[in-house]
Amino acid sequence: MDIYLVEAIVNGILLGGVLALLALGLNLIFGVIDVVWIAYADIVMCGMYLIYVLYVVLGWPLPLAFLAGILALGGFGVLVHLLIIEPILRSAPINQLLATGGLLFFLQSFATLLFGTDFRNIGVRLPIIELGEVYISYARLMAFAIALIGAVALYLFLKRTFIGTAIRAIAQDRDIIGLMGIDQRRVYLITSMIGGALAGLAACLLSLQYDVHPFIGNTFGPLIFMICVLGGLGNMIGGFVAAFVISQIISIGGYYSNTEASYVLAFTLFIVLMFVRPRGILTP
Amino acid sequence: MSVRHALTAGAAAVLLAAPLWAPPYFMHLLIQILLWGFIYTAWSLMGRFGFVSLGHGAFMGVGAYVPALLWNYYSITPWLGIPLGIAMAVVLAVVIGYPCFRLRVVGHYFALVTLALSQVVLLSIVAARDITGGSLGLTQNAAGFSWYALQFPDKRYFYVISVVLWLGGLLVWRSIDRGVSRQALDAISEDEEAAAAIGIDVLREKLRVTVISAALTALGGAIFGQYLMYLNPETVSGIAVSLQIVFAAIVGGMYTMLGPIVGALLTISLNEGLRVAFATNFIGAANTIYGILLILCIIFMPRGIVGVLERIALRRLQPHAVTATASAPSSGQ
C-alpha cells in the first residue's frame, strides 16, 4: 500500500479522536437538554484564545493554562445555559438553536475585536515520531490518547455515579424525572458544565496542533454536528464510530482528491444517511 | 387607515425619488438593503411556518454562480443563465426537501440537514477552483452597458431592478399569506400529524413553499452577482450567509411582510454606521452588537421588531382584537 495513504489513514484515526471528544460533549447536551449549541465549536475557539493568553501573554505554565481553560469553559457552559437556554427552554427547540447562533456571531466577532484576524499559535513544538516510513505527529497522538481517556472517563461517570445515572435518565424521559426526586435544573446545569469542560479539553488538544483564529469554529463546527447526529442521540458508541467514519472520509478523500472535495463527500454522505438511517448509523 | 395610506405613499415617494438625490454610496446601500430584503423575504416564506432552513446560502450560491459561469465560459446571456440557475436551485430544493418532508425530518434535524447542504455547495464551489476561481472569487467578463449581458455601470438601473424585485417578493409573500395554503401551512406548523389527519397534503404544501422560497433566493443571488460583478463563495453561499439570512429575518420579524426589509435595513446600517464611525479599528464591532441583539431578540421578542410594533399599533387601534391575533403561531415546531 502507498505510504502516503497509510499516513492519511493514521492521521484520520488521530483526528477522529478529537472529533469524537467534541461530538461527545455536543451529544451530551443535545441528548439531555434537547438543545443544539450551534456555537459549540466557537466556545472551543474561546478556550484556545484563553490558553494562548495565559500561556504566551501572561507566561503561565502550560498545564496550569490548560487546567484554567477547562475550568473556565466549564463555567462558560453553565453561563450559556443560564443566560441563553433557560429563558427559552419551553419554546420551540429551533429557537434555542438560533439563540446559540446569536452566540456564535457574538463570539466570532468579539474574538475579532480583541485579537484581530491574525493566526496565533502557542508555539509548543512537539516532536514527530517516525514509525517505519510513516511520520506521526506526537501532538496528534497525544490528542488522540487524551481524547480517548476523556471519553472513557465520561462513560464511567455516566454509568457509575448517581448524577450520571440521572443525566442518562433525563435523556430517556424528561417528564418522569421529577417523580424520581431529581432536580431537573441541576442536572441541566451539570450537563452544560460537563459539555463546556469537554470543549475546554478539546481546546487544549487543538491548540497543540492548530493556530487559533476567530473563524476556526467554522471549519470543524459543522463536522461535529454531523458526527453527533450520525452517531444517534445519546448513543456514545455510535458517536465514536461516526467520528472515525467522518475523519476517515476526510483524510482518505483528501489523499485522492482535494480537502474540499472530501468535505463535500462527508456532508453529502451525512445528508444521505440522515434519510436512510435517521436515528443514527448504529440504530437500524 | 388614512395614516397607513399616507405612510405608504410617503415611503413610495422616497423610494421613487431616491435616484434623484442620493449620492452613489447611498444608492449602493439602498440596493443592498433591497436585495437582501428580497432574499430575507424569500426565506421568511418558509421560516414563518417553522421550517427553519439553514440552507438558503446554497440556493443563493447556485443562483449566483450558474449565470456567471455560463456567461464567462460560453457567453450565454444571463437572461437564459438566471432561469437555469433558478431551475438548478429548485432541483436542489426538491432533492433535499422531498425526502426531508417525506421522512418527517423536522425541527433542528431539518436545520442541520440544510446546513450540510449549504456547506456542500460552498465547498463544491471552492473545490472546483479551476473553473470557479475558488476562494479568490469570480469576476464576470465586463460588457459595459448592456441589456444582453444584464450589466449596468449606472447604479440607477440596478436600483430600479431591486425595487421591482423587492416589491415582487412582497406580492408573493402576500399571495401566500392570503391564500388557502396559509391555513394548511399554519396547521402543519402547529402539528404535522394532526394536519395530515384532517386531509392536508403535508408533503405537497411544504414542498411548494420550499420551491418558491428557493427559487426567489436563487433569483436574488443572481441579481446580486450581476450588480456586484464579483462573486465570492463566502459571500454568496455557505453557513455564514445562511445564518445571516435567518438572523436578519428574525430580528426584523419573520411573521410580518415588512419584517425582513427592516432586518436588512437594520443590519446593513448598523454595519455601515459602525464601519464609518470607527473605520477599521473596530473590525467585528458590528457583529458583536448584532450577536447580542439577536440573542435578546429571540429570548424577548421572537416576533421581531416589526412584529412587536405591529402588535403595539394593533392594541392601540382596537384594544379587543389583540386576543384574537395573539394566538397566531409564535414559534411553530
Cα separation of the termini of chain B: 35 Å
**Number of discrete helical segments of chain A:** 10
> Which structural class matches the secondary elements of chain B?
mainly alpha
Sheet with the most strands, sense and barrel status of chain B: 2 strands, antiparallel
Percent strand of chain B: under 5%
Query: Total strand count of chain A, please?
Result: 2
Multimer state: heterodimer
CATH fold topology of chain B:
ABC transporter involved in vitamin B12 uptake, BtuC
Specify the biggest β-sheet of chain A.
2 strands, antiparallel
> What is the number of helical segments of chain B per DSSP (H or I, 4+ residues)?
16
Residue stretches of chain A low in confidence (pLDDT < 50, at least 5 long) are: none
CATH topology of chain A: ABC transporter involved in vitamin B12 uptake, BtuC
Give the tally of structural domains of chain B: 1
CATH class of chain B: Mainly Alpha
Topology (elements, then pairings):
The complex is a heterodimer of chains A (284) and B (333).
Chain A (H helix, E strand, L loop, with lengths): L2 H31 L6 H18 L4 H24 L7 H23 L12 E4 L2 E4 H23 L1 H11 L11 H26 L6 H16 L4 H21 L2 H18 L8
Antiparallel strand pairs in A: 1-2
Helix pairs in contact in A: 1-5, 1-7, 1-8, 1-9, 2-3, 2-4, 2-7, 2-8, 3-7, 5-6, 5-7, 6-7, 8-9, 8-10, 9-10
Chain B lengths: L1 H20 L2 H24 L8 H19 L3 H25 L4 H21 L1 H4 L5 E2 L15 H24 L2 H10 L1 H6 L4 H27 L1 E2 L1 H4 L1 H15 L6 H20 L6 H16 L3 H14 L4 H5 L7
Antiparallel strand pairs in B: 1-2
Helix pairs in contact in B: 2-7, 2-10, 2-12, 2-13, 3-4, 3-5, 3-10, 3-12, 4-10, 7-10, 12-13, 12-15, 13-14
Structure write-up:
- The complex is a heterodimer of chains A (about 280) and B (about 325).
- With about 280 residues, chain A is an all-alpha fold.
- Chain A has a single domain (about 5-275), classed as ABC transporter involved in vitamin B12 uptake, BtuC (Orthogonal Bundle), CATH 1.10.3470.
- Chain A is built from ten helices and two strands.
- Chain A has a two-stranded antiparallel ribbon with strand order 1-2.
- In chain A, helix 1 packs antiparallel against helix 9 (about 235-255).
- The longest helix of chain A has about 30 residues, at about 5-35.
- Chain A starts with a helix and ends in an 8-residue tail after the last helix.
- The relative contact order of chain A is 0.19.
- The model of chain A has no long low-confidence stretch (mean pLDDT about 85).
- Chain B has about 325 residues and is an all-alpha fold.
- Chain B has one domain (about 1-325): ABC transporter involved in vitamin B12 uptake, BtuC, CATH 1.10.3470.
- Helix content of chain B is about 75%, strand content about 0%.
- Chain B has helices spanning about 1-20, 25-45, 55-75, 80-100, 105-125, 130, 155-180, 180-190, 190-195, 200-230, 235, 240-250, 260-280, 285-300, 305-315, 320-325, and strands at about 140, 230.
- A two-stranded antiparallel sheet of chain B has the order 1-2.
- In chain B, helix 2 (about 25-45) packs antiparallel against helix 10 and helix 2 (about 25-45) packs across helix 12 (about 240-250).
- The radius of gyration of chain B is 20 Å and the shape is globular.
- Mean pLDDT of chain B is about 85; it is low at about 320-333.
- The interface between A and B is large, with 47 and 49 residues.
